[in-house]
Amino acid sequence: MRLRHIEVFYSIMATGSLRRAAEALHVSQPAASKVLRHAEQSLGFALFERVGGRLVPTREAEIIIPRINYIYEQMVSLRRLTENLRLGRGGHELHIGCVPSLGLSVVPKVIKRYTEKAPGNVLTVDAMHGADIVSRLLKHDLDFGIVFGEQRAPGLRLDKIARVPLVLLDSTLSEGPVRLQDIDPDRWIGLSENDPTAWAVSHIWRRLDREVSPVIRVRTHYMAAELTKLGVGCTIVDAFTALHDKTLPKPLMLDPPMSVDCSVVYREDYALGKIAQDLITILKDEFQDLLAQFEPDGSH
What we know:
The protein is α/β, with parallel strands linked by helices. It has helices at 3-15, 18-25, 29-43, 59-86, 100-103, 106-117, 130-138, 196-207, 221-229, 239-244, 274-291, and strands spanning 48-51, 54-57, 93-98, 122-127, 144-148, 156-170, 178-179, 189-191, 216-218, 234-238, 254-255, 259-267. Helix 1 (3-15) crosses helix 2 (18-25) and helix 1 (3-15) packs across helix 4.
């Protein structure tokens, strides 16, 4: 397939019709149709079937969609790079991924400080779960990621940058620390089973010979925290989530204390450049400033 074939195919998949794809590409519908027909002739199989007035991808098209998406994303990235060079930015672009808790708390502050220090560089930040960050790194879609827990994979390097306390949010309690065995299991709001916090809590409960099934399970710390604010139940989240919203229940330390490692993860065959290292330095500073707000007596 030629690049023009890929553009038309991608646009049809994204818009759902040949007409809207042509509009997105700023070409006439007959011109887009001609490119699609030439692509199918070159490949030797159809890419779409017309069903009920809509273009539906064929089985062969479904198989090649992941590759098409990857190539198209690389094309967009190349355009961004050349645009940066044209504007005299030196091509300094950084694409990072972070877990949602950090994307709504620490990372925006880091970005603000960094852009003030180096306004000519371009940052792209995606908030996603740890497993997705690992997947994107392995596909060369990210320069580095910021994750909680042991998000390891062959070919990736993990550098720990902070140990983040875990805290209890419970609108019915006001004093800590709180023992895990004293948490009401009938009000427990759990996190996704793939979340490092969920792993840590489940491990301790197993040691206490307790089987606790969440009454509600959510994928993000922020949703769990918001539910506690509404009085729906109680949960354990990272300290950054608890500090971000002052209207949440008072974060209470646990007895014994619990924490989760926060790390930078990147490819072993990819040397982090100066702009990445500068951003990580600012990230560490922000972590220290926020973690200093937590006192050992269970308050903050």
